[in-house]
Write a structure and sequence with these properties.
The protein is of the alpha/beta class and 234 residues long. 35% of the residues lie in helices and 25% in strands. Helix 5 packs across helix 7. The structure holds S-adenosylmethionine. S-adenosylmethionine (SAM) binds next to helix 1 and strand 2.
Length: 234
C-alpha cells in the first residue's frame, strides 16, 4: 500500500486471517460483548445518511438497509462481500490514505485501529494520528466518528511498548500483530485532528471475547472496549 506506514507483515496477516474467517464472524454473533458492540453501532448509525465503515472485513454487525449511501473499506475486499451486501460501495483502501468523491456524515470503525500497526511504537502512534486526520478530512462539518475500539490500561501498555518492535519482527501467530492503545492516546489523537469528543463510555466485558485468534475468558486480558463518539469541528 503506497503512502501507508503500516507494517508489511501486518497487512498480509490481516488479509490471511480475516478473509473467509467464519470462526470470527460466528463468534461475533454469539458472544455478548460483541452483541453490545453491535447495539451501540446500530444506535449510533440510526440517523446516518451517508456512512463510511473503516476496516469492515466483510461484516456488518449493525443494520444498514435504512442508510441511503454506505461505503466500506478494508485492505482486502472479496467478491463475496459484494454479493452479500450489493448496495454497499466497496473499496480496497487503507485507513491511512482514504480518498472519496464526497464527505460522509458518519464514519464508523469497529476494532480496526489496533490492527494498523507500524514497525515501531513511534510509527504506530503516527498511524493513529494519520487515521484520525484522514477521518476528519473525509467528514462533513459536524460529521460524527463512531469509534468502537479495544483499549488497554496504562500499566499494560508501558511494558508492551518496550517489547513491541521485537515482537512484531518475530511474530509467531497466525493472527496479525496488534497494538491496542490507552484510551487517552485515542482522545489526544482525535483532538489533534479537530475531532471533538461528544461521548465516551465502556462497553461491559460480560462474556468471553476474541483476542489474537483465541477465545478468552474476561479475566484473561485487561482489554476494555471503548465507545468513543467524536464530532468534526465545523
Ligand atoms: C478485528 S477486524 C474488524 C472487522 C470488522 N470491523 C468487525 O467489527 O468485525 C480488523 C479489520 O481491520 C482491517 N484493517 C487492517 N488494517 C487496515 C487498514 N490500514 N485500513 C483499513 N482496514 C484495515 C483488517 O483487514 C480487518 O478486516
Amino acid at each position: 500500500m503506497e503512502n501507508s506506514a503500516q507494517n508489511i507483515k501486518s497487512v498480509a496477516k490481516n488479509q490471511d486471517f480475516f478473509a473467509d474467517n467464519d470462526w470470527y464472524k460466528n463468534l461475533q454473533g454469539e458472544l455478548e460483548l460483541y452483541q453490545f458492540i453491535a447495539k451501540s453501532a446500530a444506535h449510533e448509525t440510526a440517523n446516518a445518511r451517508r456512512l463510511l465503515d473503516i476496516g469492515n472485513g466483510g461484516v456488518f454487525i449493525f443494520p444498514i438497509a435504512h442508510i441511503p449511501e454506505v461505503e466500506a473499506i478494508d485492505i482486502f475486499v472479496e467478491e463475496d462481500f459484494k454479493m452479500r451486501y450489493p448496495t454497499v460501495k466497496w473499496s480496497q483502501m487503507s485507513a491511512l490514505d482514504m480518498r472519496f468523491d464526497e464527505p460522509f456524515d458518519t464514519a464508523i470503525a469497529i476494532n480496526t485501529l489496533h490492527h494498523v500497526i507500524g514497525d515501531t511504537v513511534k510509527a504506530t502512534y503516527a498511524n493513529l494520528d494519520k487515521i484520525m486526520s484522514e477521518v476528519s478530512r473525509n467528514l462533513e462539518p459536524n460529521g460524527r466518528f463512531v469509534l468502537l475500539e479495544s483499549t488497554v490500561p496504562a500499566w499494560f501498555i508501558a511494558p508492551y511498548k518496550l517489547v513491541f518492535a521485537l515482537l512484531v519482527r518475530f511474530w509467531p501467530l497466525k493472527h496479525p500483530p496488534t497494538f491496542q492503545f490507552y484510551f487517552r492516546d485515542i482522545l489526544g489523537a482525535a483532538e489533534r485532528a479537530g475531532l471533538v469528543l461528544e461521548e465516551f463510555c465502556w462497553i461491559p466485558k460480560t462474556s468471553d471475547f476474541m483476542s489474537m485468534g483465541f477465545r478468552l475468558k474476561p479475566w484473561m486480558s485487561p482489554i476494555q472496549m471503548g465507545k468513543f463518539i467524536f464530532v468534526k469541528k465545523p
